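Lab notebook: predicted structure, single chain.

Context: the supervisor wants predicted structures on file for every construct in the current expression panel, including those that have not yet been purified. This is the next one on the list. No modifications to the sequence; it matches the entry in the shared construct table.
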Amino acid sequence: MTELSRVVSYATLAILSLGALVRRPAEGSRVVWSQVARQVVFSAWDAGPLVALIAGLMTVTGIALVATIAPAIDTPEILGELLATALVRELAPLMTAIIIALRSCSAVTVELGYMSWRGEVEALETLAIDPTKFLLLPRFMGLTVATVSGTMVFVAAVFGAAATGAYLIDVGSSLSHLALNLYTFVTPTDIVVAALKSLSFGVIIASVACYHGLSVRRDITQVPRRTTRALVEALVHCTVVNVAITLIAL
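Prediction complete. Output recorded below exactly as produced.
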């Protein structure tokens, strides 16, 4: 299967899964929403500390690097704008997507892969239970919510780490002021772009994970191979979409 046909399959799977949200919404709603809550807890809540840690470390590193080049620049405000744009618009959604993919994409692929191998998906169809609604929809919603909320945690951690780093690192009074007020350099465009990226990344990760999980047939050795392919493709597609959205937003 070519890469283009797989992308079409991902998009189709995403449309079908999200369409199940409005198709007979009362049917099995308690089961569906309980599965959504579990997916959100695993993908978002459990990953929150790791996202905040990575955000803090990258922010402190960025401040330290900026401090080394600040003496050669006459207008320090440019450094504040550059740092805020790089951390909020670019790194926040992409790094969050990478963390969510590493933790949850492989988990979802393995879970659905074993269900497919054991014939549980076909069993649901035999019982007239919609697998799209009861298997895919909770994972789509959970991973999307996790990516968006994780990006928000990343941004909040950036501002907190910037204020903390201003006291821990000797960067001078002007740069300390910039770090303490880093949030003032974030524009509405940065927020919109970061939100669009995180939403897109969540759908991409869920689509790739569910597709490869359901692609497992009667050979159990397909599970690790599909898991590896899902993780690699999710990261590649997220990176490509990240670059595309950045270029469009310029």
